[in-house]
Amino acid sequence: MNFTFYLDTPAFQSLALHLMLAVEIPVHMFGAFCILFRTPGSMRSVKWGMLNLHIWSMGLDLGVSLLTIPYILYPALAGFTLGVLNDFDVPLPYQAYLLAVLIGLLGVSIVTILENRYSVMFVQYHWWRHFRVPFLIFNYIFALVYFLPAYYYIPEQTSALKEVFEMLPELPQDIYNAHVFVLATDFRYVVLPVFVMSTLLVMESGCFIILIYSNMNERTKQLSLSRNTIRMQRKFLRALNIQTCIPLLILMLPMGYLVASRILNLYFQSANNLCFIIIAVHGLSSTFIMLYIHAPYRDAMVHYCYINCRMTFMWWPKS
């Protein structure tokens, strides 16, 4: 197999992610600015949770698009990186661990913002207020260590590379000349930690969403809240759910392909490259959705776009 298409090449992977980086940085910076300086008093209780989610979302984008730029030879758990960490001679096992931790922390930040909503609305005098801090600490520690089994069982590289090249016998010569790193030859050491972490986060998120909506009607009746207040609370919760769920749905596309690729033992390098480009799009889409779906941020975005367009028009050369 030679590099028949430009999409297959490391050059395409690097160029595509660098171009995305040029968009991601200003968008993420504007998103952080809106959270810090355009969050109204009515959203004060969720401000720092949103900033936490935004930071880890931005961190994953920068981790993929700048720091590592993975070039993966899936369905083998092998590949190499093209990012700036290579310029600092950071070992590839550390880079793989960094990406895994960033993904875990992003998931925990979603749970954190849902737990914050539940706590603010319902548990001021509930037993949960005594356990929420240990619960959050456990989640963040687990996100930092869940990938340790995969890291600990990284195989001896000479024999592992031989196994990978037997699995993918017709790779381009450029791949054989690259410094290919094999994360695992036994998928259990990678799949099981990721599965446990993903299951935990999904269960926790689902529990908080159910608790919030199941308690909302009872709480509003007890406090005799007005219809307008109820409507605003529901609207805000719906916005948070959309902000967190749509980016996760975007991630399901590359994850679904990677699972199918492993089951069917398919190797398409262009598809592997596109998977990581879609993963990098996740954070960008999350920020765009946040800016659009929350009215104060949307108004700020429209305001600054209007000013920029007006300044551009004023300085445009007259014919």
Q: Return the string of H and E elements.
A: HHEEHHHHHEHHHH
Specify the overall morphology: globular
Q: Domains counted in the coordinates: how many?
A: 1
Strand order within the widest beta sheet: 1-2-3
Mean pLDDT: 85
- CATH class, named Mainly Alpha
Low-pLDDT runs: none
- CA(first)-CA(last) distance: 55 Å
Number of strands: 3
Put simply, the count of helices is 11
> In the CATH classification, which architecture applies?
Up-down Bundle
What is the topology?
Blueprint (H helix, E strand, L loop, with lengths): L9 H28 L6 H25 L1 E3 L4 E5 L10 H31 L9 H14 L2 H5 L4 H11 L5 H5 L3 E4 L3 H36 L3 H38 L4 H25 L1 H21 L4
What can you tell me about this protein's structure?
With 319 residues, the protein is mainly alpha-helical. It has one domain (18-298): Rhodopsin 7-helix transmembrane proteins (Rhopdopsin 7-helix transmembrane proteins, Up-down Bundle), CATH 1.20.1070. It has 11 helices and 3 strands; from the N terminus they run ααββαααααβαααα. The protein has helices at 10-37, 44-68, 92-122, 132-145, 148-152, 157-167, 173-177, 188-223, 227-264, 269-293, 295-315; strands at 70-72, 77-81, 181-184. The chain has a 3-stranded antiparallel sheet. Helix 1 runs parallel beside helix 10 (269-293), helix 2 packs antiparallel against helix 10 and helix 3 (92-122) packs antiparallel against helix 4. The chain is globular and about 65 Å long. This is G-protein coupled receptors family 1 profile domain-containing protein.
